[in-house]
Amino acid sequence: MSDQNDQVDTADVGSDLPAALSAEDRADLVNVIKNKLRDLARDHYGFLDTLPPNIRIRVDVLRKIQSQYNELEAQFLEERAALEVKFHKLYEPLYNKRYEIVNGVVEAGDESTVDKETNESAGDKGVPHFWLLAMKNNEILAKDITERDEDALQYLKDVKWSRLDDAKGFKLEFFFNTNPYFSNSVLTNTYHMISEDEHILENAIGSTIREKIISHAVSWFTGEAVPIDEEEEGDDNEEEEEEEEEEEEDYVEENDEEEDDENENENEKGDKKNVKNTGEV
After folding, report:
1. Residue 3 DSSP class
2. Backbone Cα Rg of the chain
3. Residue 187: phi, psi to the nearest 5?
4. Which residues contact 176 (CB under 8 A, 6 or more apart)?
């Protein structure tokens, strides 16, 4: 069974090949690629042809269902991207307030319990080493932070992210105070998607900083942020403790029952002995 709409189009296979290749090499390479694509398509349709007619009909229906799902998923990804843009703008004022307090641009409001006189006399300004400590408290990032990195990260004053124009990745910008390690005040890392459908990034560190550190920096700084795996581990430990307690209770109950049985046996023996002695008298 071959669906004409699903045939592999190999007409433009050679259009993206490097221009440095000779005409002969390009032709050979194009033929190899075309043959490979045809083999893959043949294997696919060959499998469908092996199915019984009634099952082929069901598979065709399933393929249509999958196609409908793919359309909805594309709509979901589009709307999610729009939501990210919307809420990123709403987050910005909060990020700006955080930046000002962390870097001592403004003092905390009246709701803060900070003693301003003590703060000024100690020479403290803002929250020293805020980003360094937030990152070190994250297990994924802590593994890659060396002693040399720590020295430089002490001067880190802010981290921002923005989506790339092609929407297939994002960039992180690290803003530094003047420091003895590099002259640039901003360092930028760009992260691209490997798979647009599955949204897999080529570097997990970048996604960790974007999704966890930037959005929950205060919780990571204070150590209040608990990774999901640790929460699950805590739940497992609680279940194990409950099971151990139940086993101990069962063990105690069994011992109590055994002691009761032994006492009853001893009492029965004592009663028989008394009866025997009474008979002899």
Report:
1. -
2. 35
3. -110, 135
4. 152, 155, 156, 157, 182, 184, 185, 186, 187
Q: Are 44 and 71 in contact (CB under 8 A)?
A: no
Helices in 113-161 by DSSP H: which ranges?
116-121, 130-136, 139-142, 147-153
Cβ–Cβ contacts within 10 Å for residue 275, how many? Answer: 9
Contact 41, 8 (CB under 8 A): yes
- For residues 187 and 166, is the Cβ–Cβ distance under 8 A? no
Contact 160, 95 (CB under 8 A): yes
Q: List strand residue ranges (DSSP E) for 154-274, in order.
A: 156-163, 169-176, 186-195, 200-201
The amino acid sitting at 131 is: W
To which residue do tokens 């151990």 refer?
A: 244
Closest CA to 209 of 201, 6, 182: 201
In this predicted model, what pLDDT tens digit does every residue of 228-243 receive, in sequence order?
554 445 455 555 656 6
* Cβ atoms within 10 Å of 231's Cβ, excluding its own: 10
CA distance 251 to 253: 5
Phi-psi region of 230 (alpha: psi -120 to 50; beta: other; left: phi over 0): alpha
What the block records as the tokens of 252 is: 């105690």
Residue 128 DSSP label: T
pLDDT tens-digit profile of 194-251? 655 555 555 678 888 988 899 899 999 898 875 555 444 545 555 565 666 666 565 5
Instruction: Let me know: does 208 contact 138? Beta carbons within 8 Å.
Output: yes
Name the residue among 189, 155, 183 with its Cα closest to residue 169: 189
Cβ–Cβ < 8 Å for 225, 219: yes
